[in-house]
């Protein structure tokens, strides 16, 4: 998973699979190894311990998931 946040949490069907660090110190990526379960896969980004941006959801059969976030620059 790629993100510029501090951490990303992955949930499957509402059950947390944990948070992992991402961001610049981790080359903006992390990996979660999971076993397929039908249902909803949800990724939530955190900055300084606070949810950042909108959660990303995937439902149905997911073979590969790429999440991209558009940043608004002031």
From TrEMBL:
InterPro entries: DUF4982. It comes from the Bacteria. Residues 2-50 form the DUF4982 domain. This is DUF4982 domain-containing protein. It comes from Nonomuraea guangzhouensis. The lineage of its organism: Bacteria, Bacillati, Actinomycetota, Actinomycetes, Streptosporangiales.
């Amino acid at each position: 998973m790629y993100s510029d946040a501090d951490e990303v949490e992955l949930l499957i069907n509402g059950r947390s699979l944990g948070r992992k660090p991402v961001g610049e110190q981790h080359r903006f990526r992390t990996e979660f190894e999971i076993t397929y379960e039908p249902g909803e896969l949800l990724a939530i980004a955190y900055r300084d311990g606070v949810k950042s941006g909108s959660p990303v959801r995937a439902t149905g059969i997911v073979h590969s998931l790429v999440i991209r976030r558009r940043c608004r620059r002031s």
